[in-house]
Amino acid sequence: MRPSGRKLDEMRGISIETGVTKHAEGSCLIRCGDTHVLCTATIEEKAPPFLKGSGLGWVTAEYGMLPRATNTRNRREASAGKQSGRTQEIQRLIGRSLRAGVDRVALGERQIVVDCDVLQADGGTRCAAITGGWVALRLAVNKLIKAGAVTSDPITDHVAAVSCGIYAGQTVLDLDYAEDSEAGTDGNFILTGRGRLIEVQMSAEGSTFSRDEMGRLLDLAEAGCARLFEAQRAAN
């Protein structure tokens, strides 16, 4: 039995509320159970310096957690004067994932920055940030299309992410914190709407895993992402 009482292949409740901030070109609040992430997308009409004159656009991301997103207060990274290695790794992952669903030529020489701020954490924050970040990006690109700033849709596919793991000897979908903290194996799976893999992060935390178990986790991830793609389409 999972701590939440969910079935092995059951996702947490998912909701995506759009247009939650006044100024951002695209925004949403994604809730995956008790994990809540605010995602905003900002259009900058110039590309980063390393792309100047290339004709290519860029999508990047920043990620952070509010001090009381968890059960104890975390010090703001700004007050420490630097980002943690975890934060840097997660925001690079979000950026890589979102770029996989974008035609950078069609985007033109501009940058879209996707900010993902965790309001409340209960496991799977990076996965929620990727899934919600795509919605915010989609809304921002819709504005470019409506304004005639791009001649074709730069977004080539949906992008979503979900965590899976081995908990109490069983392969389970969409880990919450209680499961993630005790899982023998956990992984994050980032997929496109066409079922292509962008990235898989898997590690044996307490015990090793077999190739068969990895395949079963991937099957769960594909089913979970299919549900996330449905939520993304409903939100847009």
TrEMBL record:
Reaction(s) catalysed by this chain's protein: tRNA(n+1) + phosphate = tRNA(n) + a ribonucleoside 5'-diphosphate
EC number: 2.7.7.56
Domain Exoribonuclease phosphorolytic: 10-140, 159-223
InterPro entries named in the record: ExoRNase_PH_dom1 (IPR001247), ExoRNase_PH_dom2 (IPR015847), ExoRNase_PH_dom2_sf (IPR036345), PNPase/RNase_PH_dom_sf (IPR027408), Ribosomal_Su5_D2-typ_SF (IPR020568), RNase_PH (IPR050080), RNase_PH_bac-type (IPR002381), RNase_PH_CS (IPR018336)
Single GO biological process annotation from the record: rRNA 3'-end processing
Transmembrane segments: none
Binding site for phosphate: R86, G124, T125, R126
GO function term, MF aspect, one: 3'-5'-RNA exonuclease activity
Keywords: Nucleotidyltransferase, RNA-binding, rRNA processing, Transferase, tRNA processing, tRNA-binding
Top-level division of the source organism's lineage: Bacteria
Family to which this protein belongs: Belongs to the RNase PH family.
Quaternary context: Homohexameric ring arranged as a trimer of dimers.
Protein purpose: Phosphorolytic 3'-5' exoribonuclease that plays an important role in tRNA 3'-end maturation. Removes nucleotide residues following the 3'-CCA terminus of tRNAs; can also add nucleotides to the ends of RNA molecules by using nucleoside diphosphates as substrates, but this may not be physiologically important. Probably plays a role in initiation of 16S rRNA degradation (leading to ribosome degradation) during starvation.
Matches recorded under HAMAP family: RNase_PH
Annotated protein name in UniProt: Ribonuclease PH
Gene source species: Albidovulum aquaemixtae
